[in-house]
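Problem statement: downstream parser choked on a complex file, so we are re-checking the raw output for the beta-D-galactopyranose run. The parser issue turned out to be on our end (a line-ending mismatch), but while we're here, posting the original submission so the record is complete.
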Amino acid sequence: MSIRPADDRLPYYENPSPGTGTLPARAWYADSDAARLSLDGSWAFRLSATAEGADTDFVADDADTSGWDEVTVPGHWVLQGHGAPAYTNVKYPFPVDPPRVPTENPTGDHRRVFDLPEEWPADGESVLRFEGVESCARVWLNGRELGTFQGSRLPHEFAVGPLLRPRGNVLAVRVHQWSAGSYLEDQDMWWLPGIFREVTLLHRPALSPTDFFVHAGYDHTTGIGTLRVECDQPGRVTVPELGLDVATGEEVAVAVEPWTAETPRLYAGELATEGERIPLRVGFRTVGVQDGVFRANGRRVLFRGVNRHEFHPEHGRAVDLATMREDILLMKRHNINAVRTSHYPPHPAFLDLCDELGLWVIDECDLETHGFVELGWRGNPVSDERFTPALVDRARRMVERDKNHPSVVIWSLGNESGSGPGLGAMAAWIRERDPARSLHYEHDHDFPDSDFFSRMYASHEEVERIGRREEEPLPDPELDAHRRSLPFLLCEYAHAMGNGPGGLADYQRLFTTYERCQGGFVWEWIDHGLPKRTPDGRTYYGYGGDFGEELHDGNFVCDGLLFPDRTPSPGLLEFKKVIEPVGITGDAAAGTVTVANGHDFAGVDHLGFAWAYEVEGEAVASGELDVPPLEPGGSATLPLPAAPADAPAGEAVWTIRATLAADTAWAPRGHLVAWGQVPAVPAPRRTPAGPALAPTTAADGIRLGAGRFDPATGELLAIGGLTLAEGPRLDVWRAPTDNDLGASWQPQARFGVIWRELGLHRTRHRIDAVELTEDALTVRTRVAPAATDLGLLTDYRWTAAGDELRLTVSVTPQGDWPCPLARLGVRLGLPAGLGQAEWFGGGPGEAYPDTTLAAVLGRYRMPVDALQTPYVRPQENGARTDVRWAELRDEDGAGLRIAADPAPFWFTARRWTSARLDAAAHTTDLVPEDTVWVNLDHGQHGIGSQSCGPGPLPKYYLTVAPAEFSLVFTAVAGG
Ligand code: GAL
């Protein structure tokens, strides 16, 4: 019989306290003149199935590890051929019995032998530093145990000087996948054990700082910056550019340019003690909540943010410097100005890059206990005092490590951990240590420990209510008064899973209308898809369940603005447009354009403005636009040039673009920042190509102008020389997007589910009549799924003139529909050879009713294959909005032209049907058919964000109602 041990007899990996033997937390810095030795690279590695399954003989000098494998450090062993990654969102993938963990506890023994460089100094101390190990480590050097630690995304150091020898040092690290700490690390992401950040030996010279704290404030009323560097060693702080040379601990005031995310002004300096010289990069800024508004240097900040997990498709959370930089460049190039480091402190070098390139950072502690929600929060570690020291330890390690970054303006206690005194203890410690930054925590809606009223996935309506300060009161008047005094943040919104998110522009309007609503952070930056191969060698991205997990949350791990390979998704392009820092609108009748500076701090002098006058998407005249200097919030209305007198006939617009006038650290000169289009000349009315032609019955079918139809069904079989694979007929379904399918916890109707239940994907088309009249062929049908009396009476009226065939579709719904339609339009099939698309309309990328802002009216040409958006889980994608005409042609240029008459349509073309798209689980399941399927839609249902948040706003519903629309088809000859 075994007896459950008392906590003090638990093994270290089940002990909830912070570990043993480590040094106090301190500031991180990239470089100094003290010696350092990287211990990254190839390490000997052995995996055991249990924590105690292998002996610890490997820590000895003479241990034989010749039979071991090797892994790369930094890295995760599960991504290097040992075991497998696993994905769960909320649920713990082990029985919940804190602080105990399962006996099956994959344990990786790591061993590395190293020599000291010859010049390694003999004085002072040497410190062994681990930047990140998941989830618990026990460490030996030269056979001596140094200690143990938990807290995966936080640094841990040991003093090792006396143990070092010139040659043949044996560093041994045992890493357990599961520990008491795992209960604090239930973030929605892959479980990825390993030494995933650097291991370094750092020399600590005698009289070098143990720690230092740079306090650099800015008084916007005077333009004066103050600097004081606290340090436990006497020393000097110099900032040559400011002529500063002061003692540590001494405060100086000097006129400076402030640091902001828009103007990331850093001053190079140095902290010199007798033992060490440490480069400093000082950014002067003062942040905090004043009068209910979060301000930097006295001005309100509008967060145009994203939540960033650390992710690399090959390396998991072992993200290299180049990838970190790429993330920030991509953010800056898409007008993003803020990052929440969801839900743990990132690699410290990432924050250096944020300082340098300019991003506001919410630095979030490595804490999430969301899995306890499944238990009604019973046993939540933030209410279990055995965990309190570990919680405070985590807060301390984060703050001490990251306190010298000007980009970090808000500390966040963690994510989705309920409420409890453990959080209060963290908050108290942070407030005491660093009162100059604000504090954030979302999951306790009383907000006792937060300087923000923060929510995730709140609906537009709720945000608006909060903006108006009309939120539902809290039962406790004191807490309510406190919450009413707080600025509002959406720490997560706009769930970017699959196609979407929709409704971004409507949120942005609220953020710019209500001072209290200071923006938000889209969930999330990148899809965490891990590459896999089909048996025949094609690669695709896998998600939860693809790695043999018994419990998983499927593709919920792929909900980013970037695809796993960091290609921007349409959602990111939409976000870029929605949050552009300059608004460009105009009035062609008045001949003016208005440029509004939406920056919080910067002017517009770093931008160049250019106009183009475009007819049917072709620029016929262009020039520069002189924009005067504009203060943040300022605007100017400027005259547009006269429309060119010799412009050809056709629909015309003014397109005005704001681009970088000079190279910046994050994008080259010419990079597009903002744009606007002003309609100038509307589309001319179509005139019929000739007198109306009459239908006739011939041996091979009904003839009407260029069209040939099936006499029994009325289906269009051919037009001109083009034989169709399938004639146009009503289509009201789409392969549900993740947002259509919605999340089980959403109270609203989940239309993707209802469409399937109702059978929109299996409608039947009953032919009631094929009628020939003098000038038309009319096909009367009823479109309806089985087992219901709901239906859509659908008439197709065909007329012809010259070589044009005009189709008018009239739809009359029957019955009481419980949902909007997914789409309303016709689908037709074309020969596979018609693989080249061209259109005049919105583009170049996809758009749906609530994701249209990024679409630029223009003329585009691309292969059908390039019209597809490769969502990791295939789903409806690729619609082009506001299309005036579209063509599909073969190599010789022969094909079909479809023109709007007059209402523009949504144009989609793909080499598989919606049914195939719907059936696919991964991109490699999509195999081209020998038909190009074309959807021409009069309407589409909105996208919304219901895979986690609210669905589309009602104004984007494709409500079931009588509708009529027309399209004109022409066969185009090749050659
Ligand atoms: C939030 C959570 C995130 C993520 C998101 C859904 O509730 O904070 O970590 O799970 O939902 O993707």
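For whoever reads this later: The chain has five domains: 12-204, 212-287, 289-576, 581-681, 696-972.
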